[in-house]
């Protein structure tokens, strides 16, 4: 018995199914109930509903139709293999062997041209497309394959020629495609026959299998009949191929088959045509406007006609089959119907024209236009909060959010919905259907290791692998070790590349050179100079050397793997090395075991697929990467679906599970319906038939199913405005069709309420205007200025005892050099610097300013006879540019430093001493002491130098040293600061001042320093010379010092000063100017710059 149950509500069908299970239970408790579904989500939902209605859901199997029917074939034909010999993957690898054998034939000219480069990846991709096509032919055009096997290719051409959609201009192309496809198919059949006897082949071949199965069903023994299922339910499936429906029909002669079909309309709508089709017909037949209007009135609901092609064709198949049917339609008798229900009712009665109304509080249909995916998710979050507040009986499990590309939305969903996890406004949520390679770092890293053939092996790229705990633990690294390794890698000069030797130059920024330095450093010091072209690295010496060994082991394994994948390998070699790669890369533990088992199973599956097809050629890494990317991308996370939270998932066919609220994200033009690229050699495109699958038709029906499954609200979101220009963007054509339909059937005032256009950012004041929904209280507080604005520089609450009596000289100098920065860092603990910890990826071809300065700073202290050795060591460190650039820079560096070296030569040969400083002062009856050292004392002189230009902070440092020497009456004859000015060597000194004056200035500094422990005291410290020069400029004699300070401050880009300006009501520029004069007036007057 075969029965079809029609209903416009899947809940009605569910109720009937559970009623059948409850009232007519399976007499054999050990026999499984079979419920065919087309998605795992539907199986989960139905299982939960059965358990809820009956009390338990046990021994119920939810197979997919294709796998179930193959199981049934094997019940009556036990010799059939578990996997079909004509399985798509099996055909693919057989075609990989077969295709090259025929490329010399004339009909294969196009294929030969495509494969002319001997690219195995292109050959694989072509074989994949052809295997996919043959798989489609087996399901939808088996008669063509039978004709090809009989040598009747012309009959296939003739059938296509007779097709309605055939265009004469494609005749030659079709004949050519039929020719080469028939040759390949027959070669494939011959190849499969060699692996099986004729009986197994005929039962494996779907074109023959169905008829043999039908014959077998007509002649069953009692034992064979007992093996058949007692009954079969088909639930939540909107389309089946004609061949599968025929098998179920035949099976119904021996068991009960209950097919539940969600039919949107109780009227017969299979012959309805879209408006655009009727308009073309009117043009062709010269129909008048009256005749065309009459034709329109006879049509059904426009939405059903536009979106329901897939369901309509299946409905036609069911009708033509003559199966007994039962109707269970919900007529929506409630008078106070929402707009959503009105649309469903119009579809139910297949009304071409309707009169809708929108209630005052009716929000059952919503369209939201946003600027970005992030904004879509933020708006959705606020709208859901509003729904929970408005409808207390609504719970998170009543809401489903679907997107055609859930992987691209997942980061934004996690960011927005996880933000308030510890607050009352937190919404529990789950993410399903993500690619496992997107959410599991071990899977992602495995694919990364497969793709490293052309990689640069940059330091950052390798260090990123250690972010994965399973890799860290395998090589016995902890997070602190990784920080150490990062510093080591940067210090030994590793940037990118595995080997030192390159075709054109030696790469001393390679992993090989860096590791050699680290390993040598475990037993030697850098002071011993190079050994066998390696310079030791000091910091890897001692107990910490174990880190070096573990890193070397990891890089050695990686190098060996890279060498392996650079050549094509046999299948057995791939099998061995892939398992070894997983074993030597990832540590097995409770957190990683699932991912490791997934990888091991994927390796077995891929290897078995190739082995079964007897493909024995060597395989390149490009093909293996493609295989594993497909294998691991097909595996998605389904475990989180329907777990009592808001469900985020992919918009999949036949997942029309009823939810109170259905939300659709990313309904953008060009992105949904999803684009489908049809192969140019796909013969089915010329002769389409009822039941053929189309991605775009699937998506149209998906949209219809989403509308029908929404019980209370359909929420649609799309990117409706450009993020850069706010220019309007169109939604999906399906959304446009829906809203055009509503525009025709709703009053204009009601229609205008359906679209909500949202601001670009979450903090826009427009989010908080009347009519908008926003729960972002943080931004509301900002908008309303709830918190009174205070000046940023508030006085700190410190007692005198909190201030240390010993003042470090380095901190004191830092304060005078950059008082605002010092205050932020030392008193507030705030740092605005961006510590660029990223390691450069390319070898050095040109020295940066900092690299050049560091080399000059080291070079100035190198003896003349050791300069060549110095540069040789720098080369081994990876600090010099590659190839000839090294020689150019060596010459330039030597020339640039020569004059300063000559000037300092007499000092550099002497022993350096330090002067200990203890300068005491009493403030507020408490003694403070400035303590520290003044370096570079040579006999009776203090000589400082810098291999770069003279900076303000250098002048300030030298000035404070000078003041300390004078204030403490130290017997030093002079203090000199040498620096480079272009190619010249200049010297900074100070005119003599009295001990009393030096003490007064020092005490002023100290007083402001101590005051700044609680309240910032600051002056202009950048471009000091220019500041004082401007004050004395006759052309600027009218310039007020306070105004000049204001100009300097407002033009400053210093982040610390900018923060003070923007968060302070009014700065006292008069006070700043006076302090600048007190701090540095005497210093500027005393400065003497001399050219040597």
Summarize the topology.
Elements: E1 2-7, H1 10-23, E2 33-36, H2 40-54, E3 60-61, H3 65-76, H4 88-98, H5 109-114, H6 120-140, H7 142-149, H8 153-161, H9 171-193, H10 198-204, H11 206-217, H12 222-227, E4 231-235, H13 242-251, E5 256-262, H14 275-285, H15 289-297, H16 302-307, H17 309-321, E6 324-327, H18 339-348, E7 365-370, H19 373-390, E8 399-403, H20 406-417, E9 429-431, H21 436-439, H22 441-450, H23 459-465, H24 469-474, H25 479-491, H26 511-520, H27 545-565, H28 571-585, H29 593-612, H30 621-633, E10 646-650, E11 659-665, H31 695-709, E12 710-719, H32 733-745, H33 748-751, E13 755-757, H34 777-784, E14 806-808, H35 809-817, H36 819-827, H37 849-859, H38 867-877, H39 884-908, E15 913-923, E16 926-938, E17 941-946, H40 952-967, E18 974-981, E19 984-990, H41 995-1011, H42 1024-1032, H43 1041-1051, H44 1055-1062, H45 1069-1086, E20 1087-1091
Parallel strand pairs: 1-5, 1-6, 2-3, 2-4, 4-5, 7-12, 7-13, 8-10, 8-11, 9-10, 11-12, 14-16, 17-18
Antiparallel strand pairs: 15-16, 16-17, 18-19, 19-20
Helix pairs in contact: 1-2, 4-6, 4-9, 6-7, 8-9, 11-13, 19-20, 26-27, 28-29, 29-30, 35-36, 37-39, 40-41, 43-45
Could you characterize the architecture of this molecule?
This protein is α/β, with parallel strands linked by helices and 1092 residues long. Among the domains are: 2-79 and 214-265 and 305-330, Rossmann fold (3-Layer(aba) Sandwich); 88-195, Arc Repressor Mutant, subunit A (Orthogonal Bundle), CATH 1.10.10; 273-300, no CATH class; 341-350 and 363-433 and 642-676 and 694-780, P-loop containing nucleotide triphosphate hydrolases (Rossmann fold, 3-Layer(aba) Sandwich); 443-491 and 498-503 and 545-637, Orthogonal Bundle (PCRA, domain 4), CATH 1.10.486; 849-909. Helix content is 49%, strand content 11%. The chain is built from 45 helices and 20 strands. The strands form three sheets. A seven-stranded parallel β-sheet has the order 9-10-8-11-12-7-13. Strands 14, 15, 16, 17, 18, 19 and 20 form a seven-stranded mixed β-sheet that branches. A six-stranded parallel β-sheet has the order 3-2-4-5-1-6, with helices on both faces. Helix 40 (952-967) links the parallel strand 17 (941-946) and strand 18. Helix 28 packs antiparallel against helix 29 (593-612). The N and C termini lie far apart (110 Å). The mean pLDDT is 87.
């Amino acid at each position: 018995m075969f029965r079809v149950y029609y209903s416009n509500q899947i809940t009605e069908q569910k109720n009937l199914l559970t009623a059948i299970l409850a009232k007519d239970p399976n007499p054999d408790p050990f026999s499984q109930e079979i419920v065919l579904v087309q998605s795992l989500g539907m199986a989960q939902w139905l299982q939960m509903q059965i358990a809820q209605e009956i009390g338990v859901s046990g021994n119920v199997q939810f197979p997919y139709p294709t796998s179930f029917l193959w199981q049934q074939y094997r019940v009556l034909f036990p010799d059939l293999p578990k996997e079909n010999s004509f399985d798509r993957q099996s055909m693919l690898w057989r075609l990989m062997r077969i295709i090259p054998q025929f490329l010399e034939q004339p009909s294969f000219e196009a294929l030969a041209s495509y494969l002319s480069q001997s690219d195995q990846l292109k050959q694989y991709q072509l074989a994949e497309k052809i295997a996919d096509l043959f798989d489609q032919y087996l399901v939808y055009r088996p008669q063509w394959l039978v004709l090809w096997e009989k040598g009747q290719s012309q009959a296939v051409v003739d059938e296509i020629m007779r097709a309605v959609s055939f265009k004469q201009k494609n005749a030659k192309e079709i004949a050519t495609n039929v020719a080469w496809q028939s040759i390949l198919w027959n070669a494939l059949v011959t190849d499969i026959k060699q692996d099986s006897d004729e009986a197994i082949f005929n039962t494996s071949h779907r074109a023959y299998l169905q008829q043999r199965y039908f014959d077998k069903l007509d002649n069953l023994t009692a034992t064979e009949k007992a093996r058949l299922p007692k009954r079969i339910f088909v639930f939540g499936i909107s389309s089946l191929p004609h061949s599968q429906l025929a098998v179920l029909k035949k099976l119904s002669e021996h068991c009960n088959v209950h097919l539940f079909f969600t039919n949107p309309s109780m009227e017969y709508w299979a012959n309805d045509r879209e408006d655009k089709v009727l308009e073309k017909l009117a043009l062709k037949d010269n129909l008048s406007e009256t005749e065309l209007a009459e034709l329109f009135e006879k049509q059904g609901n426009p939405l059903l006609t536009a979106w329901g092609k897939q369901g309509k064709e299946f409905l036609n198949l069911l009708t033509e089959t003559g199966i007994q049917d039962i109707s269970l339609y919900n007529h929506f008798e409630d008078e106070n119907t929402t707009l959503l229900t009105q649309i469903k009712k119009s579809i139910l009665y297949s009304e071409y024209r309707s009169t809708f109304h929108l209630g005052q509080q009716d929000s059952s249909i919503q369209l939201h236009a946003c600027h970005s995916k992030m904004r879509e998710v933020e708006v959705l979050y606020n709208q859901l909060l509003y729904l929970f507040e408005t409808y207390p009986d609504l719970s998170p499990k009543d809401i489903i959010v679907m997107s055609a590309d859930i992987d691209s939305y997942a980061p934004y969903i996690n960011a927005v919905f996880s933000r308030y996890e510890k607050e009352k406004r937190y919404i529990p949520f789950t993410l399903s259907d993500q690619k496992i390679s997107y959410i599991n770092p071990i899977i992602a890293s495995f694919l990364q290791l497969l793709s490293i053939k052309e990689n640069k092996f940059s330091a950052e790229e390798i260090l990123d692998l250690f972010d994965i705990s399973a890799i860290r633990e395998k090589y016995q690294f902890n997070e602190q070790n990784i920080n150490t390794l990062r510093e080591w890698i940067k210090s030994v000069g590793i940037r990118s590349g595995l080997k030192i030797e390159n075709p054109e130059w030696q790469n001393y920024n390679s992993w090989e050179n860096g590791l050699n330095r680290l390993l040598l450093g475990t037993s030697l010091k850098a002071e011993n100079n190079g050994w066998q072209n390696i310079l030791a690295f000091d910091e890897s010496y001692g107990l910490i050397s174990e880190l070096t060994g573990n890193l070397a082991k990891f890089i050695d394994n990686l190098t060996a793997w890279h060498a392996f994948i650079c050549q094509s390998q046999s299948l057995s070699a791939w099998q061995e090395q892939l398992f070894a790669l997983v074993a030597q890369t990832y540590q097995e533990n409770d957190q990683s075991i699932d991912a490791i088992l997934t990888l091991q199973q994927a390796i077995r599956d891929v290897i078995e697929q190739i082995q079964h097809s007897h493909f024995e050629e060597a395989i390149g890494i490009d093909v293996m990467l493609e295989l594993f990317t497909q294998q691991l991308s097909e595996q998605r996370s389904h475990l989180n679906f329907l777990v009592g939270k808001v469900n985020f998932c992919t918009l999949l066919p036949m997942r029309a599970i009823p939810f109170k609220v259905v939300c659709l994200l990313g309904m953008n033009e060009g992105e949904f319906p999803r684009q489908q690229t049809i192969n140019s050699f796909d013969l089915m495109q010329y002769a389409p038939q009822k039941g053929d699958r189309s991605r775009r038709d699937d998506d149209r029906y998906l949209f219809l199913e989403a509308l029908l499954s929404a019980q209370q609200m359909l929420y649609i979101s799309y990117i409706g405005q450009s993020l850069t220009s706010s220019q309007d963007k169109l939604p999906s054509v399906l959304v446009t069709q829906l809203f055009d339909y509503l525009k025709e059937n709703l009053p204009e005032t009601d229609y205008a309420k359906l679209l909500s256009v949202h601001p670009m950012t979450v903090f826009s004041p427009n989010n908080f205007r009347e009519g908008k929904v926003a729960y972002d209280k943080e931004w509301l507080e900002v908008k309303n200025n709830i918190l009174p604005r205070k000046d940023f520089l508030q006085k700190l609450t410190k007692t005198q005892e909190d201030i240390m009596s010993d003042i470090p000289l380095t901190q004191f100098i830092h304060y005078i050099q950059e008082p605002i920065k010092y205050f932020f860092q030392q008193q507030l603990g705030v740092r605005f610097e961006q510590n660029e910890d990223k390691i450069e990826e390319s070898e050095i071809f040109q020295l940066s300013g900092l690299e050049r300065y560091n080399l000059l700073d080291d070079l100035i202290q190198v003896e003349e006879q050791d300069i060549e050795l110095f540069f040789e060591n720098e080369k081994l460190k990876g600090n010099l540019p590659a190839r000839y650039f090294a020689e150019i820079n060596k010459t330039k560096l030597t020339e640039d430093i020569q004059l300063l070296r000559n000037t300092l030569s007499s000092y550099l040969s002497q022993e350096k001493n330090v002067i200990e400083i203890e300068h005491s002062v009493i403030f507020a009856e408490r003694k403070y002491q400035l303590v520290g050292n003044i370096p570079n004392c040579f006999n009776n002189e203090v000589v400082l130098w810098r291999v770069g230009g003279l900076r303000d902070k250098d002048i300030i440092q030298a000035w404070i040293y000078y003041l300390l020497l004078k204030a403490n009456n130290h017997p030093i004859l002079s203090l000199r600061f040498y620096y480079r000015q272009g190619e010249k060597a200049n010297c900074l000194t100070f005119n003599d001042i009295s001990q009393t004056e030096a003490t007064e200035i020092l005490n002023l500094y100290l007083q402001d320093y101590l005051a700044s422990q609680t309240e910032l005291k600051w002056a202009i410290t950048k471009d000091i010379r220019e500041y004082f020069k401007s004050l004395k400029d006759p052309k600027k004699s009218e310039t007020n010092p306070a105004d000049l300070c204001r100009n300097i401050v407002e033009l400053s880009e210093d982040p610390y000063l900018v923060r003070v300006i923007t968060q302070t009501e009014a700065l006292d520029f008069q006070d700043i100017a006076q302090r600048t004069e007190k701090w540095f007036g005497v210093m500027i007057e005393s400065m003497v710059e001399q050219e040597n």
